[in-house]
């Protein structure tokens, strides 16, 4: 007899999970989908991402051995509060949210001790909107962060890992705070930089002329702001300190480049070339899947803070950043003077 697996939230990620599970592990699970957006539920059903759908959240989780929360971040607290009392003893509950610390806290507060919560975050390399964009191969080869709650049953943690592996992903155990610190650099910061570049150019009195001259560089750098950013805004506010710290670190890098450009050094052209080559080489290593603290140190020829101090450095500890980088997050003196929360 198949175990019941309920996916709450059948948008792009939820529907893709359903497709992957049904394609790769169909013998184990009867997949039930539910979504406050009825069109999403119907779309997931039509795409073959679920075996059946339910319009009632409590009924959807009744008797489920596994529950996957694939809702927007801001909805998860309410969903946990609603489903908590009706969950089966021993049920495995997991999620797909891009920020982990608040989700782990909500699980501790609203889910009963008789269930096991294991936080999850699939790191996917393309986006999509709704179940129509869902892809059974979305998770193939992708890192999938796994964050067991304190006291989690080890057999259920193993079940969570098996589920991750069954959709083709590669499990990566990580602490929630460390996850949120690091994800701010590669998820939150790029969108903010994209928006900042558009703002920088569009607020200029010459914007009309700038827009005419804007080429592929501007187009590629600002592509993120064309997407729906409502969900991303939630991740900013639930991960403020790490995001602000990475903004500080980015400003430090920009100021480093500015110093080169303003320098009277006759070799500044080669210095700038070296900076650009360092960035190109680091990006290539990332693309090849070989980025480690050691490889970055070799590429940059710079001190890479040990892992134990990284959290302090990027979560607002100014003294730690000063020790590691020689700059504590304050803008240098020569800086420019220019000026729905829903219920289920």
Account of the protein in words:
The chain has 344 residues and is of the alpha/beta class. β1, α1 and β2 form a beta-alpha-beta unit. The C terminus is likely disordered. α4 runs parallel beside α5, α12 runs antiparallel to α13 and α14 crosses α15. It contains 15 helices and eight strands. Strands 3-2-1-4-5-6-7-8 form an eight-stranded mixed beta sheet, with helices on both faces. It has two domains: 172 residues, 3-Layer(aba) Sandwich (Rossmann fold); 148 residues, 6-phosphogluconate dehydrogenase C-terminal like domain (6-phosphogluconate dehydrogenase C-terminal fold, Orthogonal Bundle), CATH 1.10.3660.10.
Give the C-level CATH assignment of the largest domain: Alpha Beta
Report the uncertain regions.
298-318, 320-344
Determine the mean pLDDT: 84
CATH superfamily of the largest domain: NAD(P)-binding Rossmann-like Domain
The total beta strand count reads 8
CATH architecture of the largest domain: 3-Layer(aba) Sandwich
Shape: elongated
SSE topology sketch:
Elements lengths: L2 E6 L3 H13 L4 E6 L3 H10 L4 E2 L3 H5 L4 E4 L3 H11 L8 E4 L5 H10 L5 E7 L20 E6 L5 H13 L3 E4 L2 H27 L4 H7 L2 H6 L8 H8 L2 H23 L5 H20 L5 H8 L6 H8 L3 H8 L19
Parallel strand pairs: 1-2, 1-4, 2-3, 4-5, 5-6, 7-8
Antiparallel strand pairs: 6-7
Helix pairs in contact: 4-5, 7-11, 12-13, 14-15
Features:
alpha/beta, 344 residues, 51% helix, Rossmann fold, 15 helices, 2 domains, 6-phosphogluconate dehydrogenase C-terminal fold, eight-stranded mixed β-sheet
